[in-house]
């Protein structure tokens, strides 16, 4: 019988809180790919997302002693990442630059570094691959037009698979607010993706 992943992660966090760098490195290995997906889907720039993940992990290491419940590490580190990514988007908006281009968001929908996960578009069937790539491009275009708060909540739920409670903690919003943001994002996505149904 394999150990409970939640208990294993809790043990890693406790060891890391005691200063064991190898335990923190294992936590980094577990979460780096999903943190990249979160950051990339919010900011839309690969280099910026990689920098955000690096900053997130450094900050998590420095503040790990403040984490009172080791089992909450997954949501806590996602909160650090999502807040940093949202700050980048806000700074970008103040500089009046354009939102992330749809083409920039496509790689995050298909794969991420360190995970080896790829979309079904990587299949051997060229026709299917072309169709999936076109669908991913369309989805990336829709996501790039969403308000950053809606996009972040949708990404955390649909891409990262976080629970509503975890998302609430990550974005510092109430559950009705989070559910509303996700519902509005889904409605926009469904409406804009109608031709792909």
TrEMBL record:
Name of this protein: Sigma-70 family RNA polymerase sigma factor
This protein's record includes keyword Hydrolase: no
Region listing for Disordered, in residue ranges: 97-126
Spans through the membrane: none
Residue span(s) of domain RNA polymerase sigma-70 region: 27-95
Keywords, in A-Z order: DNA-binding, Sigma factor, Transcription, Transcription regulation
Family membership: Belongs to the sigma-70 factor family. ECF subfamily.
Molecular function terms, GO-annotated: DNA binding; sigma factor activity
InterPro entries linked: RNA_pol_sigma-70-like, RNA_pol_sigma-70_dom, RNA_pol_sigma70_r2, RNA_pol_sigma70_r4_t2, RNA_pol_sigma_r2, RNA_pol_sigma_r3/r4-like, WH-like_DNA-bd_sf
Keyword Metal-binding annotated: no
Annotated SUPFAM superfamilies: Sigma2 domain of RNA polymerase sigma factors (SSF88946), Sigma3 and sigma4 domains of RNA polymerase sigma factors (SSF88659)
Domain RNA polymerase sigma factor 70 region 4 type: 138-189
One Gene Ontology term from the biological process aspect of the record: DNA-templated transcription initiation
């Amino acid at each position: 019988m394999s150990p409970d992943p939640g208990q294993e992660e809790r043990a890693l966090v406790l060891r890391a809180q005691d200063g064991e760098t190898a335990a923190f490195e294992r936590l980094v290995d577990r979460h780096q790919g999903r943190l990249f997906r979160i950051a990339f889907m919010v900011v839309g720039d690969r280099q910026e997302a990689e920098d955000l993940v690096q900053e997130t992990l450094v900050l998590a290491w420095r503040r790990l002693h403040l984490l009172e419940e080791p089992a909450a590490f997954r949501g806590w580190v996602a909160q650090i990442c999502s807040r940093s990514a949202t700050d980048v988007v806000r700074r970008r908006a103040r500089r009046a630059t354009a939102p992330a281009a749809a083409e920039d968001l496509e790689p995050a929908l298909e794969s991420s570094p360190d995970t080896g996960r790829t979309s079904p578009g990587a299949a051997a069937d060229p026709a299917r691959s072309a169709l999936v790539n076109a669908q991913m491009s369309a989805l990336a275009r829709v996501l790039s037009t969403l308000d950053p708060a809606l996009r972040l909540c949708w990404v955390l739920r649909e891409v990262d698979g976080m629970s509503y409670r975890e998302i609430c903690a990550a974005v510092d919003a109430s559950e009705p607010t989070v559910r509303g943001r996700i519902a509005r994002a889904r409605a926009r996505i469904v409406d804009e993706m109608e031709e792909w149904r």
